[in-house]
Amino acid sequence: MTETPWGDSDELRGRKLSPGPGVSPADVELNHRERLYGAMVAVSAEKGYAETTVSDLIRVAGVSRTTFYKYFEDKEACFLATLEALVAGIVGITRSQLRSEESWQERAGQGMETFMQLLVTQPDSARLCVVEAEAAGPRARAVVDRAVKEFEAMVASVFEELPEQRGMPPEMVRAMVGSARKIMQTRLHRRTEGELLEMVPALIELAFRYKPPPGALSDRSRRKRPAQPIAPGADEPAERIEAATMATMARAGYAEATLADIAAEAGISLRTFYATYPGKLEAFEAALLRGRLRMAAATVPAYRRASSWPEGVWSLVHAGLAFLDAEPDFARLITVDVHGAGREALEGRDRAIEAARNFIEAGLPSPSPENQVVVEAIQSGLYGMLSERMRSKRSGSLRGLAPLMIYMTLVPFLGPDEAYEWATR
Q1: Which of the residues 56, 142, 310, 413 has the least number of beta carbons within 10 Å of its own beta carbon?
Q2: E runs forming strands in 213-343
Q3: Cα dihedral sign for 290, 291, 294, 295?
Q4: Of 343, 328, 341, 308, whose CA–CA distance to 386 is shortest?
Q5: For 31-40, b where at least 16 C-beta lie within 10 A, e where not — what string?
Q6: What is the DSSP secondary structure assignment for residue 223, as one 8-state letter?
Q7: Are residues 65 and 91 in the same domain?
Q8: How far is CA 338 from the centre of its chain?
């Protein structure tokens, strides 16, 4: 059984409303739609959006196929309507917390706590919004992106009421909201959303540690390096398949990329593909692993050669972005296409991010649960910046993100002035 805002999944069929005295056609339509919304939450929670079918939805909702198609063109249309309804409710409830008479810091804390409480009490609805929407295609991502913009506006309005945060650049607000988004996604796909409420105090404290930079954090690098294949000159079938998997998915996306497309890109037969990997997911995961190892080889030495921790962060960020500029297929793989590959792929991505936490932990005065939240929030913010740039397909080099990334990493430890000096070296 799945609990949804429109009733428990086992009870949706029993909520059927038939036309009659005192029951308008509009009431019946709303009843049908809400039962289908609840069914979408329940089935997506069990099977994921990609495996959900119209037959699943009408079975759980207790409506006919004719009724379904009366309201929705297809599964995607039903998903989008469900997503719109959920997002509108979350945004409205969160915004209401900012109208209280408390201080702005307290309002911000109450708003985040209320938001996290919604996720904890309705985890399957939250998973639909935060996890499944990423895999459902560009129209679903656009719905979530609009909601994210509203949350960014709320955060910006809070900062404008605080003297030390007034004038916070939009890109910093975007990074903070992106950090929270990534943290929520990780907890929801791992089904450990109960941890979110415990993280609220540390996340709020971190947010108020950030101050506007003393000057501009300009995105100065506009030209990209020529893209290089992930395995240049590869002769082994595995390397060719992995490079082809990245290139094919960068063009078509995970869901639309076929084994035939990948084999053709690699210049091999399907028989050779199956002799190397059982299927698309395994090839995807192998490509992800190979790219991670090559990125580590390109970046870790730069960090280790640094004479201080801030210099190490500076070197690591610049080396990492230079690598991703040269490997755009891999950059897209880890930020966009990974969402369509399922929860195992998301878990692999998150384990890779967590394995790099020691680079930031080195700047901590002492280990503590609160500091672990700070480290995760910083890492999530960096990933969020990269993801936003890759999804938006904006022109310019990823290396242009370096000043913002360095500043956001160092401010909680060094303060705005010293962090700005490193960011603008």
Answers
A1: 142
A2: none
A3: negative
A4: 328
A5: bbbbbbbbbb
A6: P
A7: no
A8: 10
Task: Give yes or no: residues 58 and 198 share one domain.
Answer: no
Pairing of strands 3-4, 7-8: antiparallel
Residue 262 CA, distance from chain mean position: 26
d(CA 129, CA 147): 10
Percent of the chain predicted with pLDDT > 90? 66
Name the DSSP letter for residue 352.
H
- Distance separating alpha carbons of residues 285 and 245, to the nearest angstrom: 10
Longest distance between any two alpha carbons in the chain, whole Å: 80
**Nearest residue to 97 via CA among 139, 21, 155, 15:** 155
Q: Are residues 254 and 170 in the same domain?
A: no
What single letter denotes the amino acid at residue 41?
V
Name which of 45, 35, 31 is nearest 12 in CA terms: 35
Cβ of 293: how many Cβ atoms within 10 Å?
A: 11
Q: Which domain holds residue 33?
A: 3-72
In a domain? residue 228: no
Instruction: Give the per-residue pLDDT at 368.
Output: 67
Whether 221 maps to a domain, the answer reads no
User: Which of 238, 197, 207, 182 lies closest to 386, judged by CA?
Assistant: 182
CATH number at residue 290: 1.10.357.10
Question: Both 394 and 272 in a single domain?
Answer: yes
CA-CA distance, 400 to 405, in Å (whole number)?
Answer: 10
Q: Return left, alpha or beta for 12; rule: phi > 0 is left, psi -120 to 50 is alpha, else beta.
A: alpha
- Per-residue DSSP letters for 13-53? GGG----BTTB-HHHHHHHHHHHHHHHHHHHHHHH-TTT--
DSSP assigned state of 3: E
> Could you tell me the pLDDT band of residue 275, with boundaries at 50, 70 and 90?
very high
Cβ-Cβ contacts under 8 Å for 107 (sequence gap 6 or more): 97, 98, 100, 158
Q: Domain total for the chain?
A: 3
Question: Two tokens at 417?
Answer: 């002035």
CA proximity to 246, closest of 232, 235, 208, 343: 232
CB atoms within 10 A of CB 112: 22
Average pLDDT, the chain: 89
DSSP 136: S
Q: Which two tokens stand for residue 388?
A: 């936003």
CB-based contact 417:214 (threshold 8 Å) = yes
Same domain, 278 and 332: yes
Q: Region 305-327: what's the mean pLDDT?
A: 95
* Within-domain flag for 220: no
Q: Which candidate, 220, 221, 217, places its Cα nearest to that of 404?
A: 217
